[in-house]
Amino acid sequence: MPEEEQAWFPKDEVLSYEEMLRVIRVGAGLGIRKVRVTGGEPLTRPGVADFCASINEIAGIEEIGISTNGTLLSKQENGVSMAARLVKAGVRSANVSLDSLDGGTYQRSTGRDLLPKVMEGIDAAIDAGFRSIRLNCVLMKNQTEREFVPLMNYAWEKGLLLRFIELMPVSTQEVLKEDHFLATGLARQLIEQHTGPLVPLPNFKTNGPAMYYAVPGTEQKIGFIGAMTNLHFCESCNKLRLTSDGKLRPCLGSWLEFDLRSVLRSGCTDAELADFIHHVVARKPKEHDFRDNYQPNRRMIAIGG
């Protein structure tokens, strides 16, 4: 949510909802079962709840999730919150970014004074009845260390899953500098100074790369996502990312992207579209390139997280 002016794609370069739905429908025929709507901030696009409802009608799709900064979840339309509209549309899980419970720290991290709206949004999501709500905190050295206990207490009080995520050089290599980067292993050690030894939960999975631990003496679980320090991070990845401008990416941490929009708009048949998706899946790398002096070619808001 930076204050500086954002460069938006021209409207004709952005996939329509109808084009996205066609891709999802063809993908479902190939075995895709889960769809997550991301951004940027997906809730800024008009009609997103209706879009999710249309996804929910596609045969084969078993789960729809959304990733959001939370600021629009409490937005009311005819007395109904955005969160409630999403749940009615069939969205079952929400990932909400929350790096701090301190207003000043939140504003410095995000560029906006919107923490109260995020908190309202989380409450709206709880009230709406999402099956799963996960709070995502990006680990930042000399900041997150102060947030461990408050965030864990808040997540426990609200009954939510909390995950700590290592910085990744998706948009810039600057995040890997020593004065920014905080590894999940060190974060876990710092948390254990307050909780005692965390208990690994190797069989607890939530359709992603997080490694979960139980907090001793409680039923609370917390997760760690360590793309930079976990050498086995990519082993179970089965994700594809479709950008708003129609590029299909087989890996978040790779330059590889394939122009699906041109294929869609060339008058292709569903069979030809399926062949294209197969081609992209076949190019999925064994692991990301983040450790190999990766040079970003897009900002994260233009990829989808």
Describe the structure.
The structure is a single chain. The protein has 305 residues and is α/β, with parallel strands linked by helices. It has one domain: TIM Barrel (Alpha-Beta Barrel), CATH 3.20.20. Helices cover 30% and strands 16% of the residues. It has helices spanning 17-29, 48-56, 82-89, 103-110, 115-128, 148-158, 184-195, 260-264, 270-282; strands spanning 34-37, 63-68, 76-77, 80-81, 93-97, 132-138, 161-165, 199-200, 211-214, 221-225, 241-242, 247-249, 258-259. An eight-stranded mixed β-sheet has the order 1-2-5-6-7-10-9-8, covered by helices on one side. Strands 11-12-13 form a three-stranded antiparallel β-sheet. A two-stranded antiparallel ribbon has the order 3-4. The protein is globular and about 60 Å long.
CATH class value: Alpha Beta
Strand content: 15-25%
Strand line-up across the major sheet: 1-2-5-6-7-10-9-8
Strand count, sense and barrel status of the largest sheet are: 8 strands, mixed
Secondary-structure class: alpha/beta
Q: Examine the coordinates and then state which fold CATH places here, giving the name of the CATH topology.
A: TIM Barrel
- Tell me the helix content: 25-40%
Helix and strand string, N-terminal first? HEHEEEHEHHEHEHEEEEEEHH
Number of strands: 13
Protein name: Cyclic pyranopterin phosphate synthase
Keywords: GTP-binding, Iron, Iron-sulfur, Metal-binding, Molybdenum cofactor biosynthesis, Nucleotide-binding, S-adenosyl-L-methionine
GO molecular function, one term: GTP binding
Pfam families: Mob_synth_C, Radical_SAM
